[in-house]
Amino acid sequence: MTRILGVGDNTVDTYIHLRTKFPGGNAVNVAVLAHRYGAEAAYLGYVGKDESGALILNSLRQEGLDVSRCKELEGIPTAYSSVSVVDGDRVFGKSDAGASQYIRLMDDDLAYIRTFDLVHTSVYSFLEEQLVELKTASRLLSFDLSDRCDQEYLQGVLPHCDITFLSLANINNDERDRLMRIMISLGPKLVVMTRGKEGSWVYDGITLYHQDILPVETIDSLGAGDAFAARFLVETAQGVSIQAAMKLAAQSAAENCTHYGAYGYGQPYY
């Protein structure tokens, strides 16, 4: 069984209109969903020693993830982001990186990381200055850029990554191709780009693969990209072809749009 570790960001997605908060964050979501898709998974990150931190850690434990390397920080709140849903699309409002921004990987953390087949982190994880150490400890390192694609940032991050994910809805085909060629030239083995309703693309330096989205009645798109990434990572790690992995990932992304929150565990707040 493939062992996948999420490292870095977490947050509590706070749905204003529902008065409900859900555990989340890219590294958390990918780890949880990878476990649901068949991998052995764990999460390493920092939360505040508060109700929101407990919500995140308890949800991970209930999902069967190892959280033994997580830390609870006194006096620093857990990260949060406020969320609204407009026509099924999630819209973010106020946010604070909270405790998650203080993560520092120690020698024992790096030793733990070495036991995994694949490590996933993100642009929200404040680990750029430790990417050399993280990459050295990782057999494969996956990195989610969200929509950040400025040249300086890409040049600093991508040489340390094996697989990168990028989400850009408003980009034409020529710009897409140019950007993916630039990204692959910087070091990753695979570049994955999701473009909302236009579907997804994967470039391996030779072939450009495409997958359409699968129609679904969308309740909440939050977590769909993370579901795509998690399923794609699990399937390709197990030797599934890129095209077949993309189709399965699109199915998982569509299913994730049919409920609120990235993976459930909603908790009312007042």
Q: Which descriptors apply to this entry?
A:
single chain, 270 residues, alpha/beta, UDP-N-acetylmuramoyl-L-alanine:D-glutamate ligase, eight-stranded mixed sheet, five-stranded mixed sheet, 8 helices, 15 strands, 32% helix
Quickly name the level 1 CATH class. Answer: Alpha Beta
Please report the distance between the alpha carbons of the first and last residues. 42 Å
Could you give a short account of the major beta sheet?
8 strands, mixed
Helical run tally: 8
How many E strands? Answer: 15
**Helix amount:** 25-40%
Arrangement of strands in the largest sheet: 4-1-9-10-11-12-13-14
Tell me about this structure.
- With 270 residues, this protein is an alpha/beta fold.
- The protein has a single domain, classed as UDP-N-acetylmuramoyl-L-alanine:D-glutamate ligase (3-Layer(aba) Sandwich), CATH 3.40.1190.20.
- 32% of the residues lie in helices and 26% in strands.
- The protein contains 8 helices and 15 strands.
- It has an 8-stranded mixed sheet with strand order 4-1-9-10-11-12-13-14, with helices on both faces.
- α6 links the parallel β11 (163-167) and β12 (190-194).
- α1 crosses α7 (224-237) and α7 (224-237) runs antiparallel to α8.
- The chain is globular, with a radius of gyration of 17 Å.
- The termini are far apart.
- The mean pLDDT is 95.
